[in-house]
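tool_call predict_complex ligand=nicotinamide-adenine-dinucleotide
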Amino acid sequence: MPQRDASVLITGGAGFIGGTLVRQWLAEEAAQVVNLDKLTYAGLRISLEELAEDPRHLLVEGDICDAALVRELLAEHRPRAVLHLAAETHVDRSIDEPPKFAETNVIGTCTLLDQATRHWMGLSGDEREQFRFLFMSTDEVFGSAAPGEHFTDRSPLAANSPYAASKAAGEHLVHAFAHTYGLPTVAINPTNNYGPRQMPEKFIPRMILAAISNQPLPLYGDGLQERDWLHVDDCCRAIRTVLRRGSPGRRYLAGSGREHSNRAVAEMICDMASRYIGDGVDRRALIAHVADRPGHDRRYAVDAGPLAALGWSPQTSLADGLAKTVAWYVDNSAWTATAVDSLRRRDLARSPT
Ligand code: NAD
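tool_result ok
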């Protein structure tokens, strides 16, 4: 059992990546976790139920835009780091409701940075020296990669969707707080993640749920958009590596180094679902092309060299990670039902009638 240590404040820890990070952190690190999450439609208590009895995990239901709450949490728990993952994350929703994304991803990030800076300025000695603010960005801030191009930590921000623009704004704020006040920040820009407990509005779980229930798999456009898929466990290890060894003021890109078209991934999912269920159905026939997302980026690819130099490398191949993810969704219908219900309630709340 790891020894008790100072705490860390993780935002968005009831979400897909945040929840995986909280579980991985508590299994492998000593520090306690204060988990600040608004429990939006994407933040599910069921994702954290195995931690309900863990005294090292404190879930605080609250908003990152609430400056007084953030101030109170920093003063009470004196975390040695803030790991900021909370965000509105679904690109399609950002096209429907851009202001919501600006509110959480820009104002929320600015509020956290402001409170973290005030807190950090009041620290002294080792506590001040070792404090870090880690910002979870995305490779989508760089826009669409040209054929053969790999984004690097020097690539210009060129966001194309309202979601990506709100994350790029967050990165600008992080840079500004580091430059203006000297706040020790690090940022990480991972590629698309996949794995257990991802909301089924996102590409991979959406395809999996369609495949296992023999429904059409809706594939945007020609399906030849290329993505570098990173298993969420590898992403969380990358976050911890950047926190521990990253140089303040820098950003680190994380990816598996391998790209696949959306169509190829959908076909892998169909074959894996048929193999796991064992019913011999040809699910590839269920793939159905639908109208493309407006402004859809064609390709994402990153150079994760600087992160590799810190000792990180991805451990999970897509073939292995995807097969396990398909199996997880088949075997965890209670989680899936909760997530689908949460999405349904979110969409009803949005509907004018
Ligand atoms: P998610 O949508 O699954 O979870 C987001 C979490 O943030 C939810 O638990 C939600 O309740 C919480 N949240 C939203 N607004 C909040 C607010 N105002 N105050 C407090 N909590 C709030 O997202 P995810 O896929 O786990 O992504 C986590 C982070 O990683 C995000 O910052 C995202 O931009 C980034 N990212 C995601 C991917 C990916 O492929 N999923 C890739 C690169 C970067």
